[in-house]
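Predict the holo structure. Ligand: pyridoxal-5'-phosphate.
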Amino acid sequence: MRADGFETLAIHAGQEPDPVTGAVVPPIYQVSTYKQDGVGGLRGAGLHGSVEGYDYSRSANPTRGALEDCLAALEGGARALAFASGMAAEDCLLRTVCRPGDHVLIPVDAYGGTYRLHDKVLRSWGVSYAPVPMSEPQSVRSALAARPARVIWVETPTNPLLSLADIGALADIAHESGAMLVVDNTFASPYLQQPLALGADAVVHSTTKYIGGHSDVVGGALVVRDSDLGERLAFVQNATGGAAGPFDAWLTLRGVKTLGVRMDRHCQNALRVADMLAAHPSVAQVFYPGLASHPGHEVAAKQMRSFGKMVSFRHRGGEAEAVAFCGRTRLFTLGESLGGVESLIEHPARMTHASATGSALEVPADLVRLSVGIETGDDLLEDLRSAFG
Ligand SMILES: Cc1ncc(COP(=O)(O)O)c(C=O)c1O
């Protein structure tokens, strides 16, 4: 039988009608504890992969389980785990696989929070890191030759400079050296890119972004190809307690159902915005992998279904004009985050990436980042044109 397609999985995987009531949508099991039929007699064994049944919602909860089963299906993994935030997912993964003395390679333009976790938290527990341009496989090889790493951490496309890393090539390099390849797939989503199929060992998501898609919930996820690693992660998730709550899991699951159709429209709008910016006299440089002039265009075309909704550009007027521009749009709302149906605008150097100031990961001060929503494309173009004045 033909395997179900992406949109079918997004709507049905992990979301069988409720076994008790037949409810078509997984209910919000807003509950902390569960009645036992005699000591240790747990109910719900087998529901959403819970082997033993349910005893306490930090360990397992049916609404969270439904989301986890859906995410595992969408990324083609053996196991998924849902967290209270993307950072909680990152922390769980790194504390599961790294020990004091281990080394991690991170992208030179990593998300600011990922950099902060390494620099300000994990480093003091003896896990070191080095920023490497992940778009240059040779630089990754040289960094590994200088010092072996436990983990190669890749974002592709990156936030906010949208550089591309070749996942298949980096998976080979990682595995030759005994390292694990982790891909933060937040900026692509499983609809556009499936890192496990390309050779990665683990996928990280801020589900706050495309997967949730409506700017109404913060969450994170890990998806792995190996069920033993999945077990170890589940142990640490339970031990440290960063799991997603039932209502957050339910909102995320509601969002993910429309991921495919939302992404198609996001990508269409983003390409129009990138084309308009590329031709605008006030723009010095546009970063969008869908433009043939983008250095990562070929890699993106090879490993992504389409090019995403994030577009960054450098304002010819410098930092002051970039900051002023962010305050002049009508539909692009000035705010952090991305991935929702509504368009957002921000100044990374002063907002999302302020923690990287003065480091190798500092972003240009004249950079503006756009999260292009699914509003009417003509309205978005007009909004940006009039903000240039
Ligand atoms: C690429 C990327 N990874 C991880 C995170 C962290 O996710 P969260 O904010 O859900 O903790 C973010 C947040 O912006 C992000 O952009």
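The longest helix spans residues 259-278. The chain has a mean pLDDT of 96.
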